Predict the structure.
Amino acid sequence: MFPKKTIQRNRIIYHLRKYKNFLIIGHKKPDGDAVGSMLALHLALKSVGKNTILACDDHLSERFNFLPDADKIKLLEDVVKIIDNIDLVITLDSGVYQLTGLDTHFSKKELPMILNIDHHQDNPHYGQINLVEADKSSTCEIIYHIIKAINVEIDDKIATCILNGIFLDTDSFKNPNTSTDTLKITSNLLSRGANLKEITKSNLKDKSLSALKLWGITLARLRKNSKLGIISTVVTRSDLENCNASYEDLEGVANFLNSIPEAKASLVLSERDKNEIKGSFRTLHDEVDVSKLAALFGGGGHKKAAGFTIPGQLQKDKNHWKII
């Protein structure tokens, strides 16, 4: 008997070869892995004569504009009318169905078959075909194997898209999800022309003055729970407004906090729209599973990186912060 994930991968490969017209969806607030996997699969399918529509329920960050065909990613609401022309919907890097945004634009009856490709361990397998490989560093790593399986030559454009996702989801190869296979794939992508210099510049080096001011405020509020070993901080909407910054400028803070030697895990709480607070957990310790911590608040994710959203606002109470 073949392993279940091998069967699922073969089913996906069969459908990619059989059908012609695809709608490729990334999750809301798309990160580097979602964008990279979308574009890599799009470029691969386009190279063998397939038709693809790329869509997301949120606008793309400008820092991903250097990726080939990034300008072809449309808002999901703008592709509603063409759903009847689609043979298959492919969702990438979306741990739950609601993150795709499909539920707000379509009923399940309106949609063709969904191929769900992801690496989040708590993915509930919401597609008709589900390839969920939690042992992979990123969805881009899964897409790498799929592209090779459909016999598409990985050129410099595809290689750059895939490496963008791997680079960001491994926190530039520092996270424990970086396996020997991940590094072998990275080596192969570089040999095929992946632009690591541009990936690094766009995602790590180009910090605006607004972002640096925001990071300064965030780091000044660090607190340590000595009993649990959790380093935490908070960010309010007022902080973003005062620094003229965006939520995107917060990316990387939770990972950075794990560089503190005594930190077993880090937590960043940030106020969002509609009276919401987002929590982001990260850890580098094998014995810590932050997905279980996130699950206590109704969230989830990976063992080393997870998050949740709860109602409320952040309020300072003397030298402490509380949720109201």
